[in-house]
């Protein structure tokens, strides 16, 4: 019996150490692989991560990722002369993927913020956004402050959530952070939240799809203008230079504007 | 790793814990009662009742709970509300949570009850009937008390599963514990502190359920 227990203990130890070593080994390999590729040939295929649940910026059509940001990134890669491979990671795993090196580039309507700049490097901006408030047509609300005490839907961890937290506190009870924008808009039309705060592009796109419902979009001038940027892991200047180079080219040759018009019309 | 985010967001966590407990408690009670009737329905001599209850159990056992939650929250409840109270707001996410968890628990509880009841020797029912009890009285006074003792471990399992499954409600922004942790993780970029805290709280809650509540009940209803 005693021998049996010891046997089991040593077995557990061996397995445990083995797993740990294997983990370290693969981790190390990955990093060195990345280093080699970025240092040498221009043939590296950059893995671009996105959260394809934010139409019209990035969405899934059938099983293909499409949308404004997708077109922009493809155009940048073409102009900048590098190869990319798309990966629909989802929002949170996108950032984790960048941290761990499984994703090289992230484009997903990511607003350039100081907080995010601490952890990631941003490209120049490719889109100018501002926050809008979605409320019922007959709502007396005219600015964010009027929403005090009301239930507000946002997509969790977006700038929309940030402005609400800034106004009403980090743990504001009425704040409902949904996994995605469609869910929060759904629950707005179901009457579960009285307002939705989110980026102009996405909100206008959605609410225009449900034309029979009564609503209005309010612009609060206290909201700062926001700029979407493409992110890479901090210090990945090689990829960043290529992105900024490509972005500059498509800004100059009018391609970026062309894509904008295609999705949002002339404005 | 910055553990101070837990303190900064303590309100969110406390609210989450309270709601998680509330959700589990309500779903346990409703699920148990509903489950009992469904199990009796499944054993009924009326074919329609038997089939309806069987279909119910298969539907809720055979589809992912996450799908049930989404369906109930975004489709079923708004539709029902739209018909009953046109123009009114649908109830908040936590009510969808009560409904989804209770209905799901009922399906599993029904099977636990059926197994428990059928494990009692048919002679018990026959003896009770021959003493002049009607079927309902015999079920309540003779069969169920005996079956309940045998079912307790399985019921305890179901409580714990329910408590853990309530974490799925985060997708519909129900302010429960997992929602709190996910929210903190997303907005602070801290991963270990919120998720480890959450895991620890779930562990404490399930341990309390299994060691104190279920074991206490087992002791109380022990026939030995």
TrEMBL record, chain A:
Matching InterPro entries: Iontro_rcpt_C, Solute-binding_3/MltF_N
Entry's Gene Ontology molecular function annotations: ligand-gated monoatomic ion channel activity
Signal peptide residues on this chain, from the entry's feature table: 1-22
A Pfam family assignment: SBP_bac_3
PROSITE patterns on file: PROKAR_LIPOPROTEIN
Record-annotated Solute-binding protein family 3/N-terminal domain positions: 45-267
One GO term describing the cellular component: membrane
Protein name: Amino acid ABC transporter substrate-binding protein
From TrEMBL, chain B:
Keywords attached to this entry: Amino-acid transport, Cell membrane, Membrane, Transmembrane, Transmembrane helix, Transport
Keyword Oxidoreductase in annotation: no
Main localization of the protein described in the UniProt heading: membrane
Membrane topology: Multi-pass membrane protein
Superkingdom of origin organism: Bacteria
BP term (GO), one: amino acid transport
MF term (GO), any: transmembrane transporter activity
Gene Ontology CC terms, in alphabetical order: ATP-binding cassette (ABC) transporter complex
TM stretches of this protein: 12-38, 59-81, 93-110, 195-214
Subcellular locations according to the entry: Cell membrane
SUPFAM superfamilies the record matches: MetI-like
Domain ABC transmembrane type-1: residue ranges: 17-213
PROSITE patterns hit by this protein: ABC_TM1
Alphabetized PANTHER family for the sequence: GLUTAMINE TRANSPORT SYSTEM PERMEASE PROTEIN GLNP, MEMBRANE COMPONENT OF AMINO ACID ABC TRANSPORTER
Name used for this protein in its record: Amino acid ABC transporter permease
């Amino acid at each position: 019996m005693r021998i049996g227990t010891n046997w089991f203990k040593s077995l557990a130890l061996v397995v445990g150490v083995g797993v740990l070593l294997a983990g370290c080994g693969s981790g190390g390999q990955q990093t060195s692989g990345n280093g080699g590729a970025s240092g040498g040939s221009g043939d590296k295929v950059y893995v671009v991560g996105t959260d394809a649940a934010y139409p019209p910026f990035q969405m899934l059509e059938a099983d293909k990722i499409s949308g404004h940001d997708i077109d922009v990134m493809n155009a940048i890669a073409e102009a900048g002369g590098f190869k990319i491979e798309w990966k629909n990671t989802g929002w949170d795993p996108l950032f984790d993927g960048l941290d761990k090196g499984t994703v090289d580039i992230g484009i997903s309507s990511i607003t350039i913020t100081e907080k995010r700049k601490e952890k990631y490097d941003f490209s120049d901006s490719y889109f100018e956004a501002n926050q809008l408030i979605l409320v019922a047509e007959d709502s007396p609300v005219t600015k964010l402050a009027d929403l005090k005490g009301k239930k507000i839907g946002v997509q969790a961890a977006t700038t929309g959530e940030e402005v609400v937290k800034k106004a009403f506190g980090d743990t504001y009870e009425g704040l409902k952070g949904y996994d995605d924008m469609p869910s929060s808009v759904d629950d707005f039309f179901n009457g579960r939240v009285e307002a939705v705060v989110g980026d102009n592009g996405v909100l206008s796109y959605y609410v225009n799809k449900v034309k029979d419902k009564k609503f209005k979009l309010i612009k609060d001038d206290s909201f700062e203008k926001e700029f979407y940027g493409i992110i890479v892991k901090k210090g990945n200047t090689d990829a960043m230079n290529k992105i900024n180079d490509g972005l500059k080219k498509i800004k100059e040759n009018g391609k970026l504007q062309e894509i904008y018009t295609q999705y949002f019309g002339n404005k | 790793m910055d553990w101070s985010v837990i303190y900064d967001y303590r309100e969110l966590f406390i609210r989450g814990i309270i709601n998680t407990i509330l959700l589990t408690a309500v779903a346990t009670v409703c699920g148990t009662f509903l489950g009992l009737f469904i199990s009796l329905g499944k054993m009924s001599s009326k074919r329609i009742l038997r089939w309806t209850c069987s279909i119910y159990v298969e539907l809720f056992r055979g589809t992912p709970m996450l799908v049930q939650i989404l369906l109930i929250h975004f489709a079923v409840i708004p539709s029902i509300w739209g018909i009953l109270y046109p123009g009114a707001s649908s109830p908040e996410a936590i009510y969808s949570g009560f409904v989804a968890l209770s209905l799901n628990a009922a399906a599993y509880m029904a099977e636990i009850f059926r197994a428990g009841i059928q494990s009692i020797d048919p002679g018990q029912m026959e003896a009770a009937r021959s003493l002049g009890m009607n079927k309902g009285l015999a079920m309540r006074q003779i069969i169920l008390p005996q079956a309940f003792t045998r079912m307790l471990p399985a019921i305890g399992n179901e409580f714990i599963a329910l408590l853990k499954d309530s974490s799925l409600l985060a997708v519909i922004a129900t302010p429960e514990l997992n929602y709190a942790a996910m929210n903190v993780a997303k907005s602070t970029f801290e991963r270990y502190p919120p998720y480890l805290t959450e895991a620890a709280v779930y562990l404490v809650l399930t341990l309390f359920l299994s060691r104190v509540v279920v074991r206490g009940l087992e002791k109380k209803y022990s026939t030995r």
